[in-house]
Amino acid sequence: MSEETEDLIPETESEEQAYSLEKKAIAAILYAVDVEDREQLVELLEPLHAADIADLLEQINPFDRRRLILLYDKEFDGEILSELDEVIREEVISILKPDVLADAVREMDSDDVVDLLEDLEETQHDAILDALEDSDRDAVQRSLNYPEYSAGRLMQTEVVMAPEHWTVGQAIDYLRGQDDLPEQFYHVILVDPRLHPIGNVTLGKIMASRRDVPLRDLTEQMFRVIPVTQDEGDVAYAFNQYHLISAPVVDDEGRLIGMITIDDAMTVLDEEHEEDILRLAGVGEESSLSDRVLETTRQRLPWLGVNLVTAVLASLVIAQFQGAIASLVALAVLMPIVASMGGNAGTQSLTVAVRALATKDLTGANVWRVLRREVLVGLINGLIFALIMGIVGLVWFGSWQLGYVIAAAMVINLVIAGLAGTAIPVILQRVGVDPALASGAFVTTVTDIVGFLAFLGLAVLVLL
Amino acid sequence: MSEETEDLIPETESEEQAYSLEKKAIAAILYAVDVEDREQLVELLEPLHAADIADLLEQINPFDRRRLILLYDKEFDGEILSELDEVIREEVISILKPDVLADAVREMDSDDVVDLLEDLEETQHDAILDALEDSDRDAVQRSLNYPEYSAGRLMQTEVVMAPEHWTVGQAIDYLRGQDDLPEQFYHVILVDPRLHPIGNVTLGKIMASRRDVPLRDLTEQMFRVIPVTQDEGDVAYAFNQYHLISAPVVDDEGRLIGMITIDDAMTVLDEEHEEDILRLAGVGEESSLSDRVLETTRQRLPWLGVNLVTAVLASLVIAQFQGAIASLVALAVLMPIVASMGGNAGTQSLTVAVRALATKDLTGANVWRVLRREVLVGLINGLIFALIMGIVGLVWFGSWQLGYVIAAAMVINLVIAGLAGTAIPVILQRVGVDPALASGAFVTTVTDIVGFLAFLGLAVLVLL
């Protein structure tokens, strides 16, 4: 890319855009692909982190992606595969030449290979296992024996451990003598003779201490052992709650079999949050920007289907009041307002409840207090908006009674919204259904039905 | 707590409840508070992590909280304060005796004190600054000079650095000679003579290498320098994207002035996600379970107010068709279905778009492709639900024309939902408004208005 071309593209990136790929960098890379200038492409991609190259591949169109990968050829790094979105990753694997794929996979850490294999189809799965060396293949297959989303899938099997009776000097001599230490490690794990982990010693403490100090005197105060079958969400929670940097993983007998580090926990935390947000919105939790149209349609259809049922139920309520609406059309004009306000208030309460359940802040110890608060908040907001809507109803349609009716319906629906928005997620969690996934549909059903029923029912009583 | 009492409370915790406080543990603690058994209370709280004690304090009621804190007295640890929710924290600080508070604050790291001070009122602010020793107070006040939510507030000023020309042996001797090394550190930062950081060397590499190896040969491949004014959200993004463990922080001249570690970045990532979810639901981003009724009401009111305006706008659209509704009440029964489906489809699209903007996956390079996808998804889902609702309309009201009308309105509204759900967050981001905060209101307005307009408008054209 010549300097001339760079100048043609104005510098529009502000500080807010830190870490996003610059437009002109993307343009330069695509230009190199266009003119098939391999040397230039390699030079442009070389300074980029694998995660950024993965982002680039996700953002360009499939045609450019294919050409870029074929031109980049042998330079393609295994880490890029780990960083790619599932959908694009499958596509990229199918584009890579077999020998390039084999090289890329052989470069990867075993836990990354496991992560890669989890999402792949059978044929690609086997191609990748075949590319591995025997010892790596064994490690990967052992990991795959642990349940999906468990600590066993997340851990690395390479750990640095020391007998509990060692001194600093013995540990340093041992580490100097090893030539296959893990790429990243921050602690030496002390173990008893039966390989039960009993403490972590940070490398910093070891380096700063005299050779004759027993390691046992240097163990960290904060020490948590992760069972191999623990759900990865709970693992991430423990790292976040207790500010862990790394934690030993143990089997059913409590023996050390691996280690999880905070960067893996951070990735899980990020994914779990993403899933929660997408579930709350009724979007398939695995969905991504790279999904194809049909896949996206399929993911969104179920929630829209549930919503249709909800909406039809609400319509059935309205249908009971056709006579009232025919004699006073103002009811049809105003009724969506009550339902809509209830839906929004309910969504507010349920989002707070779902989050509090996820962070284990909403428990049996405070559920009644939270419920009371939500109902009171609904009552106060209900009274405020009842006043406003009562006046709107009066001014718009010149009827005091219509004002009373919409005001009363508003109070009722906002109180019910607070109640349902809190109680429904709590109950769903108790019966073992993910509250993030299902609460929205239930709460909206309640607020729609109560909204229409309260408004139209009161109207019949008061007005007709 | 006697074993007898423990037996009275059935064991209901399943594996899913990992890391949440057990009911019976809470009961035992509250019992100790009830009978004012200080020794028992201290014994029960002693094994708990500060984060768990903070969770406990958040979950019990204000009366028990006060009694517990006064009974716990001098054992109260500064770290508990760091872990508490803002609202409860202010309350707890006002309960703590001045000397207990002073002790607690003196135990804390300077970055935790900064975090604590950020949220406090003036009088509490000064009380805490007064409790600090002079040197600590200076460090804290220097930090407070950096903008809120910047890397400067997040960093610790204690760093371990070495000149770039040092060898492993020199580094080890230096570390052994220091007696005030940071509590947690994982890298030695290499700096040039002008204190510009030029690389990280992990302690593991130093320990595993011979004494005469130059540190420069051991630097990590992945190395990012964080400007002190960078937004903490971007810092968290960098740690997550590039799998950083710690990163040096530099001033405007690029000189090393501090260090950020991954556990701080993880906390920020967690907070940012939380904010995003709460904003998407129209709940104040700072809201928590511990907020009082009036505070919660105040936080939720604005979004409900915006929704009321939206709902009234939609009602104004309906009001234009009062004649049509009066002559065919079925329209009033069916119209909420079209608006509701549009609202849900729009929320799906906007959630995906808002997330993709936050993770920098939706950029100028792919926005048109994503927009096209969302419109196509809306079209396909629109056709599917148009068919279903067309049949429902026909069967329910026995009118082919009503079926056509609701089907056509459904297709129109779901296409518009895909378009608006993607375009609105992108445009808001371009003009500098947080898309998570404002998209929902705009998108729902569009889908409500388009839904009612399309359905009622087509009805007038076709049916009347």
Brief summary:
Two copies of one chain form a homodimer. Chain A is mainly α.
Based on the model shown, name its key terms.
homodimer; MgtE N-terminal fold; Tetracycline Repressor, domain 2; 22 helices; 464 residues; disordered N terminus; CBS-domain; mainly alpha; globular; 3-stranded mixed beta sheet
Give structural notes.
Two copies of one chain form a homodimer. With 464 residues, chain A is mainly α. The first copy, chain A, folds into three domains: 3-145, Alpha Horseshoe (MgtE N-terminal fold), CATH 1.25.60; 161-280, CBS-domain, CATH 3.10.580.10; 293-463, Tetracycline Repressor, domain 2, CATH 1.10.357.20. Helix content of chain A is 66%, strand content 6%. Chain A is built from 22 helices and six strands. Chain A has helices at 3-8, 23-34, 38-45, 50-59, 62-72, 78-83, 86-95, 98-107, 110-118, 122-131, 134-144, 151-154, 168-177, 203-208, 232-242, 262-280, 293-319, 322-327, 330-358, 367-397, 400-430, 435-463, and strands spanning 161-163, 187-191, 197-202, 226-227, 246-250, 256-261. Chain A has a three-stranded mixed beta sheet with strand order 1-2-3. In chain A, strands 4-5-6 form a three-stranded mixed beta sheet. In chain A, helix 9 (110-118) packs across helix 11 (134-144). The longest helix of chain A is centred in the last third of the chain and has 31 residues, at 367-397. The first copy, chain A, starts with a helix and ends with a helix. The model of chain A is unreliable at 1-16 (pLDDT under 50).
